[in-house]
Structures are given as C-alpha cells and as structure tokens.
Amino acid sequence: MSARTEGKAVKRTTVKLVLLAVSMFAFCLFVLPPMYTLFCEITGINGKTSSKPYTAVPAGVDTTRTVKVKFIATKNSAMPWEFFPMNYSIDVHPGQAMTTHFVAQNPTAKYMVGQAVPSMAPKNAIDYFHKTECFCFNQQTLAPGKSAELGLRFIVDQDLPKAVKSITLSYTLFDVTASSAEIIEAEKNAVQEASSNEQPTVGQYLANL
Amino acid sequence: MAHGPAKGLSRWLFTTNHKDIGTMYLWFSFLMFFLGGLFALVIRAELFQPGLQIVEPAFFNQMTTLHGLIMVFGAVMPAFVGLANWMLPMMIGAPDMALPRMNNWSFWILPFAFAALVSTLFMEGGAPDFGWTFYAPLSTTYAPPSVTLFIFSVHIMGASSIMGAINIIATILNMRAPGMTLMKMPLFVWTWLITAYLLIAVMPVLAGVVTMMLMDIHFGTSFFDAAGGGDPVLFQHIFWFFGHPEVYIMILPAFGIVSAIIPTFARKPLFGYSSMVYATASIAFLSFIVWAHHMFTVGMPLAGELIFMYATMLIAVPTGVKVFNWVTTMWRGAMTFETPMLFSIAFVILFTIGGFSGLMLAIAPADFQYHDTYFVVAHFHYVLVPGAIFSITAAVYYWLPKWCGRMYDEAMGRVHFWIAFIGLNVTFFPMHFSGLAGMPRRIPDYNPLWADWNMISSVGAFLFGAAQVLFLYIVIRTIIGGKKASDEVWEASHGLEWTVASPAPYHTFSTPPEVK
Questions:
Q1: According to the model, what pLDDT value does residue A181 have?
Q2: Does A60 fall in a domain?
Q3: Does B299 reach chain A within 8 Å, measured CB to CB?
C-alpha cells in the first residue's frame, strides 16, 4: 500500500468510526429513553398506568362479580406531607364508576407542590383500570398547614380477566416544590385575591387556570 | 528520517511518537493505580474492625466511589491503551499509529479529567459518594454539588477512550505490513481490535447517560425522576448497557497478553489460535445482551430474568474455550517459570475462580441472596485483579526489556509475584465468605459477625499494596541499572516486536517488514 492510498484508507476508517460513535451517543440520548417508555407501556412491566384521563364509554355493569380495589399511599423519603387514602379498599363491580379520595396535608410552614406517581399490580389489570379523573394527572399545591382531599374517579373494565380478583393501586407522593416556583407564586396570588381566608380547593384552583 | 526525540519537556508535550505516548499512558496508569490503591487501603483500614475508627461514613463513601472510578478509568483502561500504543505498531510492522496527533490528544486530556475528578475531594460537600455505578437518583437528586465536575470528567475520559479506540482500529485495519493477514495477527492485536469496537459502541452510551444526569440536575428534565414522569430503573438499564461491555473492555486485552506470554514460556505455539479469535468475538457479542443480570432484584418479569440468566451463562462457553486453549498450550510444553509466566499462570487459575463465582451470580434466584453483598465484591475483584492487573504486570515484565533494553532482576520479580499472589488471595478470598454470610457492600461499619473475615482481608490488602511498591522499585531499578537485554530477550520469543533492537529504536519499521 503506498503512503497516499494508506492515508485515504485511514481517513475513511476514521470517518466511519466517528460516525459510529456519534450515532451511539444520539441513540442513547434520543432513542433509548422513549423506547424504554414505549416498551414499558406496551408490556406494562413497570406498573405504570396511563397519565391521561379516560373518556367513559357507556356500558352495562357486570354485577355477577366483584373486584376488590386496594389503595396504597407512600411518600418519597424527602416528602414531609401526610398522605393516606380515605378508603383502604373498595369493592366494585366491573363497569361501575366509583369515586374515592386521598388526603394530603402540608405540615410545614411553606408552600409546597407535590406530584403523585401511580403504579399498579397485577400488571394484567393495568389495561382494564380506567381513571376518568385523577389527582395524579396534575401537581398539587398546598399552603402551609393546609390539607386537601384529592379525588380519584375510576371504572374497572368489564373485560377485566376473570382471574383478577383484586387490584392494588399505589401512589407515591414526590416533593416537586423546587421545580415549581411559578405554580407557587400563582397559588400565593390566588390566596391573596380570594375574599375569604379559606384555602381554595384544588378543584377551584384548577378552574382558575 | 532517522531523527531522535526532541529534548526536554516539549518531547513529552508535543510528541506524536507511539512509543513516547505509550510510555506516558503506562506511567499515568501506574500513578492512578497507586492513588486508587491508597483509597482502597483507607477502605480496608476502616473495615479492619467493626465500628467507626478512622474515617467518617460520608468520607468512606467517597473513597469507595473514587477507588472504583480511578481503578476502572484511570488505572486499567489507560494501562491497556498504553500497551496497545507501544506494542501494536511493532506487532503488525507499522511505523507508528495511524493518527499520531490525535494520539497525543487522547493522552493529554486524561490528566485534566482525573485532576478534575480528584479535586472534588477538596470541594465543599465532598467528592462523589454514590458508588462507581452512580445510580440515579442517588447521583442526581441526592448528589453533592461535585457531581457536575464528575460528569465533565467522565465526558473527557470517554472522549479520550473513543479517540484511542478509533486510532487503534484505523492502525490495525490499514497499516499492517504486507503479508500480515488478519488471521496472522498476534492475539493481542486481535483482542484489542475487538475491544476498540466495544469502546466505540459503549463509551458514547456512558457519555449519554451522564449527559442525561446533567440535564436532570441542571436543566429540569426528568429522565430518571419518577416525579416528573421518568424512571430510575431506566438509568440502571442504560448504565449496564454500557457497564457490561465495559468489564470486557477491561479483560479482552488481558486475554491477548497471556496468549502472547504462555506460548513463549511453554515453548509451543498457541493452541487453537482461530478458536481464540472466534471466542473473543463471541464474548464481545454476548456482552451486549446480558446487561440486566446486574439488576435481577430490580423487579423484572420472570421472562426477563430467565433470558438474561441463560444469556449470561452462555458466556461461560467461549471463556471455557479460552481457558482450555491456555491449559492445552502449556500441556507437555517445555515450561519455565519466569515472572511474566508466573503472573500468566496465576491469571488463568484465579480468573477461572472469578469466572465460577460469576456463574453462581448468574443464577437469578441465587442472585437475590448474593446481590450487593461482599460475594459480588469478591467476584469482580477476582476477575479484575488477577485478570486485568496481573496481566498488565505480566506484560510489563515481558516487554520491559524491549522497551528500555535492560533486564529486570528475576529473583526480585518472583518475590513480587509471590507477595502479590498471596496478598491478593488473602484479601479477596475471605470476601466470598463474608458475602455469603450476608455482609453488604459499601458500608463503613458492620456486624461483628463478619469481623474475622474482614480483619484477614485488611491484612491481605496491605500486603498486596506493599507488593506494588516493590513493583515500582523493580521497574525503576531496571530502567536505571538493569543488565543489558538481548534483542529477542526470551529464548522462545516469537513475533515482529522481537526482531527489532533492544531497546526498541525511536522509529521502527519505517520500511515495512516482510511477513511470511
């Protein structure tokens, strides 16, 4: 190989290898995370439930069987709020719309924002558990010392596999105050504008947006 | 053409000579090896007895983290790149590396990366304390401020490794002497070719994962933050997608080194050359599909546990081929036991022990018991210390006479070997037992139940450290005042690097040799 053809060959190899390295970087940053989310959504293996409200389709209630829905509330380690379900379990018939509440209380002396992240077991129930309304779709803001009832409205699908007798829905509450400065400002203003001293409920707050 | 090196400091700053750069890589990795070793001794000193005696738990965590990072990225990887720089052009009959200026760069950014990393020890909030695996959210939400500097230093190390790997592939593919076909290349060249591809494939993934951390910490994204819709488990998947090929990056060149040394001292050609090449390629391929065996306890579905368990066990097959070939090369050979051979034989035996404990860990249901215990620590130290460190040591003894033209003191070399061999086993073998008894990794204080094993481990660690000080002394004494070495150095040495003078001239193979 003469020096010139060798130089060209080296350049070609180098360009190919640089492209390989750059594309692996792009693959890692832009392809892997969405692929992972998609994979988890399709297979339901990490217990993630849908983050969008379900539009109910009218259908009959299957009164021949009852499913026990259990609720678990956990706090991420850094979260000082009180957080628990008002009912720890509810018996429902598939197809029946049901409402329950969780209670959150902010015992600190500052405004805080929380975000609940749901997870569900068993995984073959995930596709058949529909949330028409859920506090987990939004962040929750609480003034110092205030508490709120957080609503959850859901329907268990009639097509739920027969083997599933009970479903566990777990919420983990995270402190997202640090990344939500704007929401807190808006909340403070809303409190000042309100004529009463009462803390507006989460529902009113959302309506104001 | 025949001009020597420049004078003074500028020789080292501006050099594009593969031998100079190889030398700098090797000395740098030696320095990092001692620094990482020092951190290991802080850990072992604290663990000598239960209770807190010497350091605070927070500082202990910084020590475990920096020990891992410096040994992996500062000691083992640069040492292999240094050996590649020195030996590859001479083994394939090339005048230099294909991209000499980039070669200079890829070395000289390393000291900056490690200066940044080590400087975090003096920062407010301390050095990174989340383990060398830096799992999120420990390394994002709960990390000390120094994590940002850590991220940038990992970026620089990654850039250095990628440049080094590109250079190595470009050299091997384009600059072989006439007649040097791929299947005539020495095995060290083959293993490095495959390792370089692994590096180019996974170092960008490491860069990607630390970039995601950076964005989570400073730019409000939520790749790994469940509160924002991300998933911490994603971090583990991406990290180990990099991490498992990474552990093979640290072992494949070692396979090449022992495959060069054992035939020399057994005075027989390597048994099963082509099966060695295919086994190396198979191991490299399998390394991409086994990453989740590091995460058996994360809550994977049964199918996932099984797939990763069987794929992991499959690695034992090509690895077994290699061990078989090394043993068969020695079988009925006219063996002598010079220091490089001693380290290579110890490599074969101890690496096999590490491989077996790896098989035990690969069994998913059993791993639930072993996970994050000292059994894992024992396993990966048994593959990395006799695997990477012993093979690098063997390579230094084997090629040092070629590099500096002087022979090391054989008696001292053997003393070094036996102290290191005994020290290593005394340090790491008891860790199997403390691990099986349930001792978790990365803790500064522990149940007195494990006190005896830990005391033995700590004694062994200081013995092993002393052996490395002796190693440094032997190397310096050889360079300064060793006996003159002959050109072929070893009685049965075989390969192009032994056809040049000792010490190897500044420029070799300016006209390519003829390979038959």
A1: 74
A2: no
A3: yes
Question: Which H or E run includes B80?
Answer: helix B77-92
Tens digit of each residue's pLDDT (9 = 90 or more) over A86-144? 989 999 998 888 899 999 999 988 888 888 888 888 888 888 888 888 888 888 888 88
Q: Which residues of A touch B193 (CB under 8 A)?
A: none
A50 occurs within a structural domain: no
B166 Cα to chain A: minimum distance (Å): 6
Question: Which residues of B are known catalytic residues?
Answer: 67, 96, 132, 160-161, 244, 246, 248, 259, 293-294, 319, 322, 441
A120 has which bridge partners?
A169
Helix, strand, coil percentages, rounded to 5, for chain B: 70, 0, 25
Question: Cα separation of B249 and A199, whole Å?
Answer: 60
Q: Is residue A116 within 8 Å of A140, Cβ to Cβ? A: yes
**Given this model, what pLDDT does residue B1 score?**
43
DSSP state of B439: P
Q: A160: alpha, beta or left, given left = phi > 0 and alpha = psi -120 to 50?
A: beta
Neighbour tally for A166: CB within 10 Å: 14
Coil, helix or strand at residue A150: strand
Nearest CA in chain A to B242: A28
**Residue among A98, A93, A114 at smallest CA distance from A173:** A114
Residues B21, B477: Cα–Cα separation, whole Å? 22
Q: Residue A30 is part of which domain span?
A: 1-43
pTM of the predicted model, to two decimals?
0.87
Residues from A in contact with B at Cβ < 8 Å: 1, 6, 9-10, 13-14, 17-18, 20-22, 24-25, 27-29, 32-33, 36-37, 40, 43, 45-46, 51, 76, 78, 115, 117, 123, 172, 174-176, 179
Instruction: Assign domain B16-498 one CATH number from 3.50.50.60, 1.20.210.10, 3.40.50.720, 3.30.1490.20.
Output: 1.20.210.10
| pLDDT classification of A178: cutoffs 50, 70, 90 | confident
Of B230, B238, B300, the CB nearest to A28: B238
